[in-house]
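Before surveying the methods themselves, let us examine one representative protein, written as a sequence plus integers encoding its fold.
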Amino acid sequence: MSLPQETIRRKRDGLTLTEAEIAAFVEGITAETVTEGQAAAFAMAVFFRGLSLPERVALTRAMTASGTVLAWDLPGPVLDKHSTGGIGDTVSLALAPMVAACGGYVPMISGRGLGHTGGTLDKLASIPGYDVAPGLDRFQAVTRAVGCAIIGQTGDLAPADRRLYAIRDVSGTVESLDLITASILSKKLAAGLGGLVMDVKVGSGAFMAERDAARALAESIVTVANGAGLPTRALITDMDAPLASAAGNAVEVAYAIDYLTGRRREPHFHAVTLALCAEMLVLGGLCTGVDEAAARLEDALASGRAAEIFSRMVAMLGGPADLLEKPERHLPRAPVVRKVRAEGVVASVATREIGLAVIGLGGGRTRPQDGIDPAVGFTDLARPGTASGILGIVHARDDGAAEAAEAALRAAYRLGKAPSVEPAVLERVE
């Protein structure tokens, strides 16, 4: 019998855990015979001591096997993308319908906010009526009918990760390369994918602030995933500034709608989204190269097919059928809206601080059980090199929260000399 405290002690002391020890601990997480404190202690031990490649594979497999593993019978490739998280990272809302419009199927299992970063699931939950936790039958039916469905983890898919994910969020262990790898891949393997593209963020708003660390994570995920039979490649992308000019929940949904409908397509966001989608189409055999894929994706946007698929997905999962036409009617809006003005050129952004400011507004969590305010956040966030006179617009519940958010936003921006422009996509790993 493998006692949880003995597994924690062995990893704390830097010893290598056996596959059986890891499997037993994960089973305890799922059955809740391992306490929240023990799970947090295990996560901290892994954070400091690390896991070998065999341990990482064992943890990923155990978490995958903790619940149902889906099997698909569809007329196209089953593909997905996962981001390591950042600020204004609204890509998933646009990417899934874009890939679906080009013949792929995207059953995306998304998470809530983690640490300072926003969560795709929280964004979708801001849409009235949208069911972020449908049963697996409905999830599969929507994916089959529309081409994509974005939902949260159900109790059936990788339930061990669902519990550990929430504990990592509040125990200071989010940045562990080993735990990130197992968390991401357990969900993706459980979803029955045929191909995965990773978006590994690097910069001041990412969990990996340095390029070497981001590359190590990308290589870890690609190695473990390919070893588990899931064809995977990764892009390392820039997160030294908010990817979209919106950060929050409802405000990011509105941004994604503007992007899909063509009302606004910011270059940096478009470049990252297009690159990830193109890699997915090539990985799924739908295109022979990224240039061909990019052309097909641009056509899916210009024709309105991607926007229509997003609209159908929202409606089939319980949201309003006219969300794209009338987002202002349905998406929650904060009562206090305040422009933050500053003259000068933006030299750099402490992007992580903007994510923390969203949490301060009530748009994120400090405890797993916390609720969030879907209406709050920032829009019109300035990028390095811009001199618009506006750092951003605060959306707050009251004047006090708006004042605190304005102060946080000002503190996050440094004005001065225009920086050199970094490309949106920095590196490719396969």
